[in-house]
C-alpha cells in the first residue's frame, strides 16, 4: 500500500503546477498503471551555488519507484521499498538518512486499492481527488552508485524514491469517504497540501520528526474530497495501461 497508481500529466504541466525547473531534459510518458520499479516523476529542492551564494531550487526529476539505499549491494532491494511507514521512517536503516535531507514530493492523479471478496476474487478500486486537481504524496529519494560501473566513467547513478504511508483516517460524520477507505485498507499513501509540501521539501529544515508529524496531521483535511470508485479487473495486469483503466464499473461484490 500503495502498490499501483496513476500519473498521466505532461512534464510541462508538472513544471507549471509545482513551479519547478529541469536540471536535465526528461521524458515521462503518461501511465495509468504505475507499478513498482517504474520510472516516475518526483519534485525535490536543492541548494545550488550561485553568484550571490547558495540558492534553493525546486526541480523535477525522474526516479525509479522503490528506494535503493546507498549501502545496497544491488538495486533489487528497491522492489520491497516502494512504501515507507511514516511511524518508523526515522528509525528504519533504509530510510533514516533520506528522511534527514532527501525528502521529495511524488505527484499522482490517484491510486488503486483492492478489496478481497469471496474465495480468490478481488475488486479493484480507484481512489482519486475531486475534479480539477491531482495528488501529491510525501516521499523520500536516494542516490545509489552501481559498484560495477567503470571507475572514472560518467553515469552509474540510480535515483530512486519511496512513498510514505500512514494509518487510514477513521470514518467520521463529516464525510463518508473515510469509511470507504477503511473498508479497502488500513493504510493510505501520505498526501500533502501546498503549504505542507513547501515545508516538507525544504532541504534546510532540520526537524524531520516534526515534518513527519506535520504531514500526518493534515491527512484528513487533504483526503476529505477523495472519491473511491470500483474499476475493471484489467488494472491487475501491469501490461494494461490506458485511460480506460480508471473508468468506473459496477463492483463485483
TrEMBL record:
One matching Pfam family: SRAP
Family: Belongs to the SOS response-associated peptidase family.
InterPro entries according to UniProt: SRAP (IPR003738), SRAP-like (IPR036590)
Protein name per Swiss-Prot or TrEMBL: Abasic site processing protein
EC number(s) per entry: 3.4.-.-
Record keywords, A-Z: Covalent protein-DNA linkage, DNA damage, DNA-binding, Hydrolase, Lyase, Protease
Entry's transmembrane regions: none
Natural source organism: Pseudarthrobacter quantipunctorum
Species classification: Bacteria, Bacillati, Actinomycetota, Actinomycetes, Micrococcales
